[in-house]
Specification:
Radius of gyration: 31 Å
Strand content: under 5%
Order of helices and strands: HHHHHHHHHH
Shape: elongated
Distance between the termini: 79 Å
C-alpha cells in the first residue's frame, strides 16, 4: 500500500511541477518553501517505490511529510485568507497538487501505511524550516529577495515583528513534526532480559575456588566453602 500511495504522490508531483514550469522560471520558484518541500517529497517517494521501507527513506519521508503539512496549514490558514485567493492557492493549477492533494496524501500514507522514522529524527524538519526561514530573512534584509512570503519581509515588518513571525513558524513546525513523526512505543511480551556475564564470575576469580559458578561441584583438591559450612552445622547439631 505504501508503494502505491507514494507512486501516486510521484505522479502528482510530476503533474504539479510541469504546471508550475509553464507559469514562469522553474529554477527561481525554488525560493518557495512549497517547492522545496515538494521536491523532497518527490525524491522520497521515488526512493520508497524503488527501495521499499529503508531507514534513509523513512527519514526523508518524515522530513517531506512534516514540511508538506506545514505548507498546507500556512497556505490554508494564513496565505489564502490574507490574500483572498483561496481558490487560486488551494484548488487551482499546481497549487491544487502542491498545497492540497499531495500534503494530504503524504500525511495519510506516512501515518497509516509506512514504517515511521525513529522519534529522534523529529528535529530534522524543524531544523530545515529554521534554516530556510533565516536564509529568506537575511536575503530580504539585503534586498536580494522580496518575500516570497510576507512574514520574511523584514524591512516592512521590522525586526521585532519578523522575529515574532519566525518564532511562531518554528513553533508550528515543531508541533507538526511531532504530530507527524510520533509513534507509540513498540509493545513486547518480553518480561525478563538475561545478559551473559552480568554479575557472574569465572575460573579466574578467587570466589570460584569456594563456590564454582557452574554447577557448584567440588573441584580437584579444593573443598568448597559451602561444604565446610555444612560440616560445621552438622557438628553443632550432634
Amino acid at each position: 500500500m505504501a508503494r502505491i500511495l507514494n507512486f501516486l504522490i510521484f505522479i502528482f508531483e510530476i503533474i504539479a511541477f510541469y504546471k508550475a514550469r509553464k507559469r514562469g522560471s522553474f529554477a527561481k520558484s525554488f525560493i518557495f518553501y512549497t517547492q522545496i518541500s515538494n521536491l523532497i517529497a518527490l525524491i522520497a517517494s521515488v526512493l520508497l517505490v524503488i527501495m521499499g521501507q529503508h531507514r534513509v527513506v523513512e527519514i526523508l519521508r518524515l522530513l517531506a511529510t512534516s514540511m508538506l503539512a506545514m505548507t498546507f496549514v500556512v497556505t490554508a490558514c494564513i496565505l489564502a485568507p490574507a490574500s483572498g485567493k483561496v481558490k487560486d492557492l488551494l484548488f487551482k493549477g499546481s497549487s491544487l497538487f502542491h498545497h492540497f492533494l499531495i500534503p494530504v496524501l503524504s500525511v495519510i500514507s506516512y501515518r497509516f501505511a509506512e514504517d515511521r522514522a525513529p522519534m529522534v529524527w523529529i528535529w530534522l524538519p524543524v531544523a530545515v524550516t529554521l534554516i530556510y526561514g533565516l536564509t529568506m530573512v537575511f536575503l530580504n534584509s539585503r534586498g536580494k529577495v522580496d518575500g516570497p512570503y510576507p512574514f520574511f519581509r523584514v524591512k516592512e515588518n521590522g525586526p521585532a515583528k519578523t522575529a515574532l513571525w519566525m518564532a511562531c513558524l518554528i513553533l508550528v513546525s515543531t508541533v507538526f513534526s511531532c504530530a507527524v513523526g510520533y509513534r507509540t512505543p513498540a509493545k513486547t511480551d518480553v518480561k525478563f532480559v538475561f545478559v551473559h556475564g552480568l554479575s557472574g564470575w569465572g575460573s579466574y576469580d578467587t570466589l570460584n575456588e569456594f563456590i564454582p559458578y557452574w554447577g557448584l561441584t567440588i573441584r580437584k583438591n579444593v573443598k568448597p566453602f559451602y561444604l565446610e559450612m555444612v560440616k560445621m552445622i552438622s557438628g553443632l547439631s550432634r
